[in-house]
Amino acid sequence: MVAETPAAEPQTSNPRFVSIDVMRGIDMFWIIGAQGLIGGLRSLSNSGAVKFVADQFEHKPWEGFHLEDLGLPLFIFIVGVSVVFSVNRSIKRSGRKATVKRACRRAVLLYILGIFYYGGFSTPLSNIRLVGVLQRIAICYLLTAMLFCYANIKTLIAVCVMLLVGYWALMTFVPVPGYGRANFAEGKNLANYLDKQYLPLRQESGDHDPEGLLSTLPAIATCLMGVFAGLLLDDKNISDEAKVFYLAAAGVAGIAAGWIWALQFPVIKKIWTSSFALVAGGYSSLLLALAYQVLDIWKFQWWAQPFIWIGVNPITIYLAANFIDFGALAQLFVGGDINHYLGPYGQLVQVVVTVMIELLFLYFLYRRKIFLRV
User: Fold this and answer.
1) Given phi > 0 = left and psi -120 to 50 = alpha, else beta, which region is 187?
2) Whole-angstrom Cα distance, residue 82 to residue 5?
3) Is 6 inside a domain boundary?
4) Given this model, what pLDDT does residue 277 score?
């Protein structure tokens, strides 16, 4: 996700909204570095507060919601926000037909990058993973951009509702052979069953995948929620204070509606239940309201520059973290295994140095105006 990618536009694409780049950067930092930092802190203390925070940076095994479960839906939400500005700008500059072609090209390239991220074609055919994080982002971006090109706001809202309600209806009323209707347990629900029957090659969870076939539908709804937020930010007739209020109100409403829906349709990230989509979308809207207030209204931005470096080059660091051993580079700087003379502080020091090297790498790219384009 980088300059001129489906998942992100460079900061210069719309300098009014520093909050969008910073949110994207914080989200990616969360993915590439936060877990290690929390792990380092946990090695120093087993206090209740540290344990609670550390637990929040681990995915829920199945039902429920931890902070870690917000990473991907927040990113997809931000993709939706960015679509409003990138697609509108592209239509004005090149026309609708060229914009659609550009969206298709971007999505295909991002999807292929996803395949290579999980090993590409260097592995046996049966080990190639056709779905994953980048592939899900690519699909959500493409379908959302296509809808945004041709549909008005009322149609977009209707599609979002239909995706959430339709997914709930399928998962609730279509019987799964051997397990019946409305079974949301792992391996016994309709989404997992369809993956087992129709998703070829490697699947992350054995015979099903957390980024599987059917659960892509509510993920697209998450992207559309981002579009609604982007349209609000882009509306010149609404004051900044009102935008913050509407974003916050929508966030609270989404969280409340999601947990109420969870009484029948549980919050489960690995099958992206409709209740999960609402809860995650609600938190994403609240975070955007906070970021917009702090960064774009109060202009309190001095602390955010490192996150901008990440936010304009997220695909770069996402891929680099998989192909470059930043941890090994950190060991060169700290003198190898430092646990023997720093004890429990060794892990934390090495993680901090690793993150600093990643940030320096991104700063170099930012200063040189090098952005991965797809």
Assistant:
1) left
2) 10
3) no
4) 98
Higher-confidence residue of 323 and 154: namely 154
Q: Is residue 16 part of a domain?
A: yes
pLDDT of amino acid 4: 39
264-282: per-residue pLDDT in tens?
Answer: 999 999 999 999 999 999 9
pLDDT tens sequence across 65-122: 999 999 999 999 999 999 999 999 999 999 999 999 999 999 999 999 999 888 777 7
Percent of the chain at pLDDT exceeding 90: 67
Sequence-distant (6+) residues with CB within 8 A of 270 are: 62, 186, 205, 210, 215
- Count the neighbouring beta carbons within 10 Å of the beta carbon of residue 91: 16
CB of 21 closer than 8 Å to CB of 312: yes
Place of tokens 């209020």: 245
User: How many beta carbons lie within 10 A of that of residue 124, not counting itself?
Assistant: 10
Q: Is 63 strand, coil or helix?
A: strand
- 197, 121 in Cβ contact below 8 A? no
As for how many domains the chain has, the answer is 1
pTM: 0.92
* Phi-psi domain of 45 (left: phi exceeds 0; alpha: psi -120 through 50; beta: other): beta
Residues 28-43, mean pLDDT to the nearest whole number? 74
Distance CA 312, CA 3 (A): 6
With respect to residue 324, please indicate whether it lies within any of the assigned structural domains.
Answer: yes
Residue 80's alpha-carbon distances to 39, 86, 139, 176, 346, in angstroms, are 32, 10, 12, 33, 40
Task: Provide Rg for the chain, Cα atoms.
Answer: 21
Look at residues 301, 360, 318, 317 and name the one whose alpha carbon lies nearest to residue 15.
301
- Per the CB < 8 A criterion, the answer to whether 349 and 342 are in contact is yes
Is residue 4 in some structural domain?
no
Range of the domain at 331: 11-367
pLDDT at 124: 82
CA 316 – CA 318 distance, rounded (Å): 6
